[in-house]
Write a structure and sequence with these properties.
With 105 residues, the protein is mostly helical. It has three helices and no strands.
């Protein structure tokens, strides 16, 4: 009986220690690890899993980009407005110099 309790205690301790070291910090790491493991073992990986993961990553990327654009939109619009002003100034100055001794470039 003592040997059985000792064996179960060792097994429980080993599995607990192993489960803590195997836990993935990120979902993507766990999925990629699973796919690599299945390929190494020679098992066929269902492509629908890969497609679902790609869709999830695209959605996350699109959402993140939306927040970034929203955050930096005033700077982007100011840059565009500045470029439009510079182009308008150039056209106006070229129009003023038309027919004179200086040529607009």
């Amino acid at each position: 009986m003592k040997k059985l309790i000792f064996a179960l205690a060792i097994l429980w301790f080993g599995l607990t220690a192993l489960s803590k070291s195997v836990q993935a910090n990120e979902y993507n790491t766990a999925v990629i690890g699973h796919i690599i493991t299945q390929k190494v073992q020679g098992n066929n990986v269902d492509t629908s899993v890969l497609e679902a993961e790609m869709q999830k990553l695209v959605y996350s990327f699109a959402t993140e980009m939306t927040f970034i654009v929203q955050k930096h939109l005033p700077n982007i619009l100011e840059g565009i407005a500045s470029e439009m002003r510079q182009n308008a100034d150039k056209v106006y100055k070229c129009k003023l110099l038309e027919g004179g001794s200086y040529e607009c470039k």
